[in-house]
Amino acid sequence: MENVSQSTIKGTGVVAGVAYAEAVWVRPRPELPTAGELIDEEKRDGEYDRFLEAVDVVASRLEQRAAGAEGQAAEVLGATAGMVKDRGWHKAVRKSIRSGRPAEYATASATEKFVTLFEAAGGVMAERTTDLKDVRDRVIAQLRGEQEPGLPMVSGEAVLLADDLAPADTATLDTAHIKALVTELGGPTSHTAIIARQLDIPCIVAVGADLRNIESGTLLFVDGSVGTVSLGANRAESLKAVEEYREKAARVAQWRGPAQTKDGHRVQLLANVADGNAARIASDSQAEGIGLYRTELSFLSASEEPTVDEQARIYAKVFNAFPESKVVVRTLDAGSDKPISYATLSSEENPALGVRGLRIARDNESLLTRQLDAIAQAAADRGDDVPTWVMAPMVATAVEAKWFAGLCRERGLTAGAMIEVPAAALMADTIMPHLDFVSIGTNDLTQYTMAADRLSPQLAYLTDPWQPAVLRLIQHTCVVGSDNNVPVGVCGEAAADPLLACVLTGLGVNSLSAASTAVAGVGAQISELTLEQCQKLAEAAINAEGPSEARTAALDLLEEFKA
Length: 563
Ligand code: PEP
Ligand code: MG
Fold this sequence. Notes:
By secondary structure, the chain is α/β, with parallel strands linked by helices. It has 21 helices and 16 strands.
């Protein structure tokens, strides 16, 4: 490709695929107002009415978009509209207007108070500040008669550039026009990355400030598998690469499971789900079952623990989507970035290293046993030969594994553990004899191995699942699994990357679980290589100096095998 070295910027590729199109920036956020002059007392009621009118327009626009959307997109838009209509926020704005502030400034300052509160609360609350600021910006733009910030209307094909995307924007991305997403901030597990993965469009995050030098209208070649954005790329070569990618996508769409390598080595491909709805969607994919049901996601907004019967009904919806197939249920992974009010300690200095996952049950065993009772109750109608597996998150020691396995077996459940704490990988030989299976959570295993917060955009270069240090821990776990006859799965985001999935297969992983949209891509890629070729990729990756080198080494070998 021409001029690539001078004109390529790099970020973290989170969804593979290539695109060649003009850059379009998400419409800028409005400048935040300064306090300005106090307004006359008799005009203040009218000023508040002006605010309410703007709120009405913004909320009904979002509601209209929600009505035209489906599933998660409709939910996100509906929730954003709900925030615009929030009484508590209106009250704070009214107070500010009554003290003489113009509506624009009152909107900004009232929002700031909530942002500060949410940031102090941390975790999921802190993540909602993006939504709050999004609502603020929409209302301020409306008050000023400016265009609504956020997604522009795009008629041709475009690569969407943004600092980060608000949920309301990502929820309604039109993939007929938007061919790739590139953001300055964000990380592999950020909202933008998750939505891009669902929409299956190439996505690069954490590019950094260099992105701002690209103007709307610039032609870009984006390669999501290596995380590069190239300016001035050769047009013919770029279009050829896009065409090849399309052909590959068509092959993926044709792919039918069950997954196996070219020489017949079976790898079980499963789906990660959050609820019954996602499980139904997964049942239409090529996934053979569920490899990770994140139960905590059903309870994020619950103020009280649901009863055993209520929980059983929720779990049954997931089982019903796969009545004859394997379902792996993970017990509550509350805490850290997923606080649950009835299960999580209210204040911890360092929640990612705190009382999360299985650790919560140490002082509250009955919370866990009630959940296991509910899982057993929901699974009671499943046939004896239909695998219903249960695993605990954040297991770090053999004592924890033994304790958890005992509680599962008392209820006739097959017991496993996530391997996501480096200690568990290193001590796998002491942990596995207590268990029926393990599943490696590469998101947390990477976070804890690299000592890098998985939510930090600045550390995305460290929280890369291609980190050879992480791959070595996976390799060790696979060797111990095979010695102990304990199946080893991977259910972190690593399993969604087709090339990395081949590396994992080469390392000896028996099953891979990923977002259902990723399953066919992974299966198709595995089918193109022999087990021995996967092993060669694995060897190259674990011996590389860093994640980029590991990825490049694997890609080079792939080209060699094709030739
Ligand atoms: C992981 O850590 O890789 C994992 C699958 O669990 P979660 O992303 O829910 O922490
Ligand atoms: Mg985890």
